[in-house]
Amino acid sequence: MRNIVIAGSGVLGTQIAFQAALHGYDVTVYDIDNDVLERGRATLIGLGEYYAKDMAATPGQIDATLERLTMTGNLGAALANADLLIESVPEILATKIAFYEKAAKVAPAKTIFATNSSTLLPSQMADATGRADKFLALHFANEIWKRNIAEVMGHAGTAQATFDAVTAFAGSIGMVTVPVHKERPGYIINSLMLPWVMAGLKLWADDVAGFKSIDKSWMVATGSNFAPFMLVDIGGMNTAYNMFSSLAEAYNDPLVAKAAQRIKTEFIDNGLLGAATGEGFYKYPNPEYLSPAFLS
Ligand code: NAD
Questions:
Q1: Which CATH number fits the domain that encloses residue 100?
Q2: Between 57 and which of 16, 51, 86, 145 could a Cys-Cys bridge form, CB atoms 3.0 to 4.6 Å apart?
Q3: Same domain (yes/no): 240, 124
Q4: What is the distance in A from the centroid of ligand 1 to the CA of 23?
């Protein structure tokens, strides 16, 4: 594999693109309009600072990474010589299917397609790819450079060669790879983590406690430096809204639905989209939960 295409220049798409380019791949990032691409380009440049701070990446490595990254709004041009397409468009089944139907028409037969979906199953999208045997899920975690896990999950029709090639690719960009043996919404990580975040959101939506009290309780009691609302901010409000709206439906849980609705009306509608844009539940770049006083 040489040429990697990332579809979607949002929170995760930019991180996957940067990580792959840092490891020497030629990466093309595709998104739907020029304004979004401009924002994506700025995010990529900003990611360099995190790699410098957290991973001791040198200015030379960061410059070389940015040189290997190309942005485009032309899907046909992006995919013309793609070995691997990693789709990281919004967590809405219809959006993903529409994207795959377009990509299937312009991608060469050799291109492997992988979805970074957090909660959907590859079998729900396989037909739209026109290459079910060359399609699977490759799921990354937010802050990919530090939380470098990659879950690889096929559907019943995924070829073993595809599974092996994608696992090898993920390893080559510094990921710890884990095979998931059968389809499971949420893979391993989100099967563990989402019920926990959902429990926090339900306490908040039901006015049992404020979000800071919920985060603080968890952190003090368990010694963890991670808490539910922090995670929602880092993942971004749009993703949280999409994900918890569909989980509310799946679990028929009115409190989860209420939490998703409050995320929309109190945050998204006011332009507060989470850590990446400066404010969600907390204000960034110096959120309160990083201060020792938060736990006192
Ligand atoms: P995001 O909203 O930050 O970014 C989505 C991007 O996709 C936007 O730039 C949007 O313009 C673009 N887009 C929309 N329609 C498109 C199309 N048809 N073609 C190309 N681009 C299109 O979302 P995100 O948080 O990066 O999530 C993307 C995917 O990654 C989702 O499936 C999500 O479940 C998954 N994921 C997210 C996280 C997280 O913590 N945010 C973690 C792991 C996986």
A1: 3.40.50.720
A2: 51
A3: no
A4: 22
Residue 246 banded pLDDT, cuts 50, 70, 90? confident
Over 90: is that where the pLDDT of 214 sits?
Answer: yes
Same domain, 233 and 170: no
118 lines ligand 1 (CB under 6 A): yes
Cα pseudo-dihedral 78, 79, 83, 88, rounded to 10: 70
Is there a single domain that holds both residue 171 and residue 236?
no
CB-side exposure of 24: number of CA atoms within 13 Å? Answer: 7
Quote the ligand 1 centre to 13 CA distance (angstroms): 6
Do the domain assignments include residue 70? yes
Q: What is the pTM of this model?
A: 0.84
* C-beta 287 within 6 A of ligand 1: no
Amino acid (1-letter code) at residue 75: L
Q: Is the pLDDT of residue 259 over 90?
A: yes
Number of structural domains in the chain: 2
Q: Is the pLDDT of residue 119 over 90?
A: no
103 within a domain of the structure (yes/no)? yes
253 Cβ contact list (under 8 Å, min separation 6):
198, 202, 247
Task: State the residue range of the domain holding 123.
Answer: 3-180
- Which residues are CB-contacts of 166 (< 8 A; sequence separation ≥ 6)? 84, 112, 114, 136, 138, 152
Mutate to test the pocket of ligand 1, among 5, 96, 239 (most ligand atoms within 8 A of CB): 239
Q: Is the CB of 7 under 6 A from ligand 1?
A: yes
